[in-house]
Amino acid sequence: MTMTNHYSGRVSGTHITVIRLAIGAIVMIAVSLIGQVPASAQTSDANSPPSSSNSQSQTSAPTTGKKEQVGRPKVITERSLFFPDLAHSRLPLTAGEKFHLAIANCVSPAAFLGSGFSAAMGQAADSPAGYGQGADGYGKRYGASMANRASSNLIGTYFLSSIMHDDPRYFVMGDGSLKQSVKYALRRVVIVRKDDGGEAFNWPGIMAPLAAAGLANSYMPDAQRTAAYTFRNYGLAIAASAGVNLLKEYWPTITRKILVPIGIGHDLHKP
Q1: Sequence-distant (≥ 6) Cβ neighbours of residue 118 within 8 angstroms
Q2: Which parts of the chain are beta strand (E)?
Q3: Tell me: the pLDDT tens digits for 206-239?
Q4: Residue 166 gets which letter from DSSP?
Q5: Closest CA to 207 of 147, 169, 154
């Protein structure tokens, strides 16, 4: 079954089904995780030390205490040049600092390399087809990817995070198993840390990629200016954010043990 579209002619029913399933999965994850926010807000508050009552409860129930400790947000000891949004301080950011963070994210090595990889994948798949092939086509795909990242960062990291008092930085867990790290990385797609240390639904992280995908219609080829293509890009952006979160989890370890040892690691004892 196909659906006619003004720009692209035909959109397969399979593509529409995949898009719906992707959106449904996001909603299901959000619904399942947002219910855990009130219970986990106390354990994820990196601004204040645990109370004496919490310490006593951990003493009386050591097994439960250890499980609760895994997943607490932590900071790295030094600023990351590759991922500027890796938190290296527990102090909340001002609106101006969120703006500077958004700009830093736009021009970070991760942004340039990520856009290069995205453009290469698009080149191999000839998507968007309107950009063509060769160096010119790759350049257009690269520029479109960088523009999309800039839009998402300025809307989410700066604007929405400022007005909603959310903290756009990524606080690593860093001390869990692979399964726990994957779960934490996925959770951080839909749950954000607040400026006051609490937690809330990640509206900036969820809405900014959608707004950026919509804005991309202003520079996309005519054939790709469709609702189906917009939500396809949106679903890919959400999936990519989960994968990047997992990479951020292991980035301090990768930097310290695999790349040049420059002293970046988790600071578990910093007050």
Answers
A1: 141, 145
A2: 2-5, 9-12, 75-76, 166-167, 191-194, 199-201, 266-267
A3: 999 999 999 999 888 888 889 998 999 999 999 9
A4: E
A5: 154
Residue identified by tokens 């779960």 is: 183
Question: Which segment of 26-40, 63-77, 161-175, 243-257 scores lowest on mean pLDDT?
Answer: 26-40
DSSP annotation of 12? E
Residue 77 contacts residue 267 (beta carbons within 8 Å): yes
Domain boundaries of the chain, sorted by first residue: 2-49+73-267
What length does the chain have? 271
Count of Cβ atoms closer than 10 Å to residue 134 Cβ: 9
Strand partners, 166: 194
The structure's pTM equals: 0.70
Distance CA 138, CA 123 (A): 6
What are 234's two structure tokens? 């949106």
**Least trusted range by pLDDT, from 33-37, 72-76, 240-244, 249-253:** 33-37
Contact partners, residue 240, CB within 8 Å, separation at least 6:
none
Q: In whole angstroms, how far apart are CA 127 and each of 82, 138, 186?
A: 27, 10, 27
Tell me the residue type at 222: D
Strands 199-201, 266-267: pairing is unpaired
The DSSP element (H or E) to which 85 belongs, if any, is none
With CA atoms as reference, report the closest residue to 226 among 26, 25, 3, 23. Answer: 3
3-state secondary structure of 86: strand
**For residue 30, which of 160, 186, 165, 179 has the smallest C-alpha distance?**
186
List Cα–Cα distances, 199 to 37, 95, 205, 254, in angstroms: 6, 18, 13, 28
